[in-house]
Amino acid sequence: MAKKQFKVKINYNWCKSCGICYNTCPTKTIIKGEMNRPKVEDHTTCIGCLMCENLCPDFAIDIVEITEEVGEKNG
């Protein structure tokens, strides 16, 4: 069974650059970017713990599990 993979989606229209996400990320997937805005350079380090998503006061972060479909759907 393959390791689950996740993608960090940040809605910059809602984000106020408070820094909670990159200060609590245990894997440092989310880092401090320009003007204190969160940024992600490598999504593969995300473990899907949801700390950033749950602690974001602006609801600006979504952690999405990446699923790879094997084969084609019948129908």
Describe the structure concisely.
This protein has 75 residues and is of the alpha+beta class. 13% of the residues lie in helices and 24% in strands. It has a domain at 5-51: Alpha-Beta Plaits (2-Layer Sandwich).
Structure description:
This protein has a two-stranded antiparallel sheet with strand order 1-4. Strands 2-3 form a two-stranded antiparallel ribbon. A hairpin with a 5-residue loop joins strand 2 and strand 3 (38-40). The radius of gyration is 14 Å and the shape is globular. The protein has helices at 20-24, 51-55; strands at 5-10, 30-32, 38-40, 61-66. The chain is an alpha+beta fold and 75 residues long. It has 2 helices and 4 strands, in the order E-H-E-E-H-E. InterPro entries: 4Fe4S_Fe-S-bd, 4Fe4S_Fe_S_CS, Fe-S_Ferredoxin. Keywords: 4Fe-4S, Iron, Iron-sulfur, Metal-binding. Residues 6-35, 36-66 form the 4Fe-4S ferredoxin-type domain.
